[in-house]
Amino acid sequence: MDLQNFPETLVQNISDAIVVSDADGIIRFWNSGATRLFGFSATEAIGQSLDIIIPTNLRKRHWDGYSETMKTGKTKYGAGDLLSVPAIRKDGQRFSTQFSILGLSDDSGKLIGVAAVMRDVTEEFEERKNLKIALAECRKARQDQTSKP
To answer: 0.85 cut: is pTM over it?
Structure first.
């Protein structure tokens, strides 16, 4: 088994989206999973702002956090933590994503970008939301039964 090209093959072809952005939030790498997930080809995405995948109403919060991370070199989302946020596709469809991030540093240790590994978790998010609603309804029904004389 020849594994010489395995890292490149994995990164380019894994089904999860892998997106790398520089310190200014400009997309520098976009794999085939990102194309599948977001609908933009690598040619369309590379060189663009991350705004192409961030819902308009969440951009300020995103950029505030991104800027702080680039300035301090620290993020609260690391070491295996998963971040769940909405994203948008090329066609404007909003969906739920979950991702982990990896800070990318230069030789001096200065943070110069971020790599994110993302996946669509819309179905799971909707299932959890529906289960929470059903559980709340069951609890209310039980409470109503126990409070009757």
So the answer is: no
